[in-house]
Design a protein that fits this description.
Layout (H helix, E strand, L loop, with lengths): L2 H16 L11 H7 L3 E5 L8 E6 L2 E7 L4 H18 L5 E4 L1 H5 L5 H14 L2 H10 L4 H4 L3 H11 L3 H10 L5 H14 L1 H7 L19 H10 L5 H10 L14 H16 L1
Parallel strand pairs: 1-3
Antiparallel strand pairs: 2-3, 2-4
Helix pairs in contact: 1-5, 3-5, 8-11, 9-10, 12-13
This protein binds zinc ion.
């Protein structure tokens, strides 16, 4: 990525972050920010092997999906990556689907790299990382970082252990040897334990499995069912997400079978 493109992305990430509610260092709830900004956000436990997220433009709506089977810290990164696609790329392409390859940075295509860079700048801006290292740590330059410090960074910025390490390395705060050493320490002590030992947010390390679907999606589903685009089972399943049954929305369904019966009666009536 060229330096001037990086700068453009930093400016856009910064502008987005300015609209968000931020605690000392991290965006408090990026999911809520999306809803506040008018994006249609869908969160659903799609399965561990399924895609991690997607973003698409539909008429005037921006729709973003994240899979709640991934650890919350990872889901937040996926969301930030999708926001990156929305802000940087939606003018040229209408939809993006992301999996472990595109999100981890192993996909070298320009748009995926840019979305990851946007996500890193949005969640952990360089200035705030500097501020954390300066104010929260005892002489960072001399003592260097421990895995417990990384757990504190996770909690403050709402990011995963891996993301914190990658970002710190990219910002030149740790070198590759330190990164490997911190990674080993993490494997020995486990992230959940580290988070607990610093009084951090242990929820970041678990999948939320949340279901969060905008209420208006019921309209889409009913419309699709009425136009024979989805089977009855799908209708039932989607309604189940809202704690509703088919009986609750019965008056909005076009009953194909009943209609046919009426037609038979009518034709029969004409024959008589
Ligand atoms: Zn992507």
């Amino acid at each position: 990525m060229r330096e001037n493109r990086k700068k453009e992305i930093r400016i856009k990430a910064d502008a987005f972050r300015e609209k968000c509610k931020v605690s000392r260092y991290g965006i408090i709830d990026l999911f809520k920010e999306c809803e506040r900004l008018g994006y249609k956000l869908l969160r659903y436990p799609l399965g561990e092997e399924a895609d991690l997220g997607f973003s698409l433009q539909r008429d005037n709506d921006i729709v973003i999906f994240t899979n709640t089977c991934s650890r919350l810290s990872r889901e937040i990164f996926t969301l930030a990556h999708e926001i990156g696609h929305v802000i940087l790329h939606m003018e040229s392409k209408f939809s993006f689907v992301d999996d472990a390859v595109t999100i981890s940075g192993r996909d070298t295509s320009e748009k995926e790299q840019e979305a990851n860079y946007f996500a890193a700048c949005l969640l952990m801006p360089a200035d705030d990382v500097d501020k954390f290292l300066d104010l929260e740590l005892e002489d960072f330059e001399r003592n260097r970082l421990t895995a417990m410090d990384i757990a504190r960074i996770m909690s403050e910025f709402n990011v995963s252990f891996d993301m914190a390490l990658n970002r710190l390395e990219n910002l030149g705060k740790i070198d590759n040897n330190e990164k490997i050493w911190l990674d080993n320490e993490r494997n020995e002590k486990r992230v959940g334990n580290l988070l607990r030992s610093v009084g951090g947010n242990a929820r970041l390390n678990a999948a939320s499995m949340d279901i969060d679907i905008p209420y208006e999606y019921i309209d889409y589903v009913i419309y699709n069912y009425n136009h024979n685009a989805i089977p009855y089972e799908t209708l039932e399943k989607v309604l189940g997400c809202y704690q509703l049954t088919v009986e609750d929305i019965r008056d909005r369904l076009v009953e194909q079978i009943e209609r046919d019966d009426d037609l038979d009666d009518l034709i029969g009536g004409l024959d008589d």
